[in-house]
Amino acid sequence: MLLRLLMMGTGRFALPVFEGLYRSPHTVAGLFTQPDRAGRGHHRHANPMKEAAQRHGTPVFQPESINTPESLQTLRELDADLAVVAAYGQILSGEVIRTPRRGCINVHASLLPKYRGAAPVLYAVLNGDAETGVTVFQIEPKLDAGMILGTVAMPIGPQETTGELEERLAELAVPLTLRVIDEIEAGTTTPVPQDPAQVTRAPSLKKSFGRVDWSKSAVQIANHVRAMQPWPTAFTFLEQPGKPPLRIILTEVKPLETASEGGGRKAEGGSPEADGGPTLPALNSQLSTLNSQLVADAPPGTVAFGDQHTILVRAGEGFVSIVRLRPEGKRDMTTAEFQHGHTLRAGDRFLSET
Questions:
Q1: Euclidean distance between CA atoms 331 and 324, whole angstroms
Q2: How far apart are CA 322 and CA 313, in angstroms?
């Protein structure tokens, strides 16, 4: 017997799953998504989930809270067998969870029980994980704690940002979700409990979380920059003599190590010439000299080397090569483009705060 489905989702991670439901033999009875929000200039942000539902002629519901008596009545009237939830942005009450005949399933962008919470993809990148994946689980009132109905894993690219990884995970989620729905219909699911001892959290974050902490290692800073994209972005403040601090968003950096900190030069992604990283004359000897002279006594965040193509910054361990950056009020640009107008020199500093 084919199922009558509801979709609950808002973010772009949910869109491929939603579109996938229409390619299944099951019926999509309605979409619950967040209310439209006003952006700058009072323009409404586009909601791709709502737009997709309208293209398919599916009823759209946008309650401020899905847990009100009015929303519960709407749910009952839709008479659904199963609700599919992905990046919805609201916590479901027990009564909502019990309303569809076969309950609610959640499509979550991590390998549970790792990274329960609102930002699992960001934390996987931030922590430098080599692998992540998607989990579909049966929703229960406790956050992301239900029985696992299916998982699929994939590697994380060494230069991949949160936004790029989320896009890949969203596509990976589609066949897994459709398989689980078919198993629910057939009564062949094999639920697996989550191990409470393995639980880690991935809570939502504030814009201030993007602040770069230069006391961390070069690898940790590079992971931080990748993790903060597309939001809230990694930011720092450039301090130069005679100038006010300049807020800068870092959009791409690469970690480098000195011989004394990692057995020789090390940069993710191969040689600098091959991957678009810094091109420094006699780089190994340059780093050795910097480490033993200026940078040895300079605090983290100090510019160790700056020319028309390169900005190399001292981290708590190793060096950070800045590849792309965006000064406040300007466009994203390469290091070479930035150096045309600002001319960083050794001894200038990047600060975590002004």
A1: 10
A2: 8
Q: Is 173 exposed, middle or buried (0-12, 13-18, 19+ CB in 10 A)?
A: buried
Task: Give yes or no: residues 32 and 125 share one domain.
Answer: yes
Where does the chain show beta strands of DSSP type E? 4-9, 27-32, 60-61, 82-86, 104-108, 131-138, 148-155, 234-239, 246-256, 303-306, 311-314, 319-327, 333-334, 349-351
The pTM (predicted TM-score) of the whole model is 0.89
pLDDT tens, position by position, 60-111 = 999 999 999 999 999 999 999 999 999 999 999 999 999 999 999 999 999 9
Considering the domain architecture, whether residues 129 and 214 belong to the same structural domain is answered as: no
CA dihedral 280→284→288→291, nearest 10 degrees, is 50
Alpha helices in 87-154 (DSSP H): 94-98, 120-126
Residue 109: CATH number of its domain = 3.40.50.170
Clarify whether residues 87 and 233 are in a common domain. Answer: no
